[in-house]
Design brief:
Layout: H1 3-14, E1 18-21, E2 24-27, H2 36-44, H3 50-53, H4 62-70
Antiparallel strand pairs: 1-2
Helix pairs in contact: 1-2
Length: 71
């Protein structure tokens, strides 16, 4: 988990854009990230592959959804 994300997490919390909850963290505003993995790592507080961590409401991973749209 990169130190730069730790700093970003602290800044977002100070700005009120990120809140800690019992199950982890939630964004209180829409934010755009350079990659799904960056967003996942920020919220999960550990290394993460955003393509497999982010799930569609159907339960499919982002990678599965992307693969379906290519075919």
């Amino acid at each position: 988990y990169p130190d730069t994300l730790k700093g970003l997490r602290e800044r977002l919390m100070q700005q009120g854009k990120l809140s800690e909850v019992a199950t982890g963290f939630i964004l209180t505003t829409d934010l755009t990230f350079r990659s799904p993995s960056t967003a996942a790592m920020l919220l999960m507080g550990r290394s993460a592959n955003g393509l497999t961590e982010w799930k569609h409401e159907s339960g499919k991973s982002l990678k599965e959804v992307e693969m379906e749209s290519v075919n």
